Amino acid sequence: MRIAVAGGTGWAGRLVVDAVVAAGHEPRVLARSRGVDLTTGRGLEAALDGVSRVIDASNVTTTSRAKSVAFFEAAAGHLLPALESAGVEHHVVLSIVGIDRVGFGYYQGKLRQEERVRESRVPYTVLRTTQFHEFAAQMLARGGPLAVVPRMRCRPVAAREVADTLVRLVLAEPAGHAPELAGPEVREMVAMVRQLQRARGGRRPVLPVSLPGAVGKAMAGGGLLPLGDSARGTCTFDEWVAAG
Fold first, then answer.
1. Main-chain dihedrals φ then ψ at residue 231, nearest 5 degrees
2. pLDDT digits (tens, 9 = 90+) for 137-181
3. Which domains does the chain carry?
4. Contacts of 237 (CB under 8 A, 6+ apart)
5. CB atoms within 10 A of CB 154
6. Relative to the CA of 217, which of 5, 36, 144, 151 has its CA 20 to 30 Å away?
7. 192 in the Ramachandran plot: left (φ > 0), alpha (ψ -120 to 50) or beta?
């Protein structure tokens, strides 16, 4: 089966592509570097030729509500009609736990993406997950004399487990909103970044930052934790760090 992966060159998308291959299927990467631009529709029609299922792990790096909403609105506005035209049987979207409870700018774009997916005529499944273990590495990868890290309670999950789950979902029947996927333990993001830096021999100071207002209070107070029953990953952050 040919499965397209939107955002297949990103942090999560690369692992999704690997999971598609491991499951015995053929990935088709939808990314600017492969001649496909979701925000303009360039290259979409050709890229979706012969594709029966799509996993959307596309992303934009911003904290701005306006930029996030503009990106996901434009991407959905081109991708969803193209999926319908191509006769795609199942569209699986990667989203984030708690975006309807924490009014962070980026999350507003993800909410709009979910709305557009629900409004479309393409059969879909939305998988909301908690922050990846890899998010701590992204914090360290940013330049500057300090590693600036938001105060955030989370239940981190391994991105590889997320990728495997996305592939299992896309091969199944459309489910609307799937059970949320979270990691096995609650952690503090600041402590995670410090632990990862120690393991890597880094010395850069880690600066905890509380985001202002209700957003910061919600992040620090557990607004990004799953509510009720959710699927659980098995890989702990300690195990992920130890694995290198």
1. -70, 150
2. 999 988 889 999 999 999 999 999 999 999 999 999 999 999 999
3. 2-242 (3.40.50.720)
4. 133, 136, 156, 183, 185, 187, 192, 195
5. 26
6. 144
7. alpha
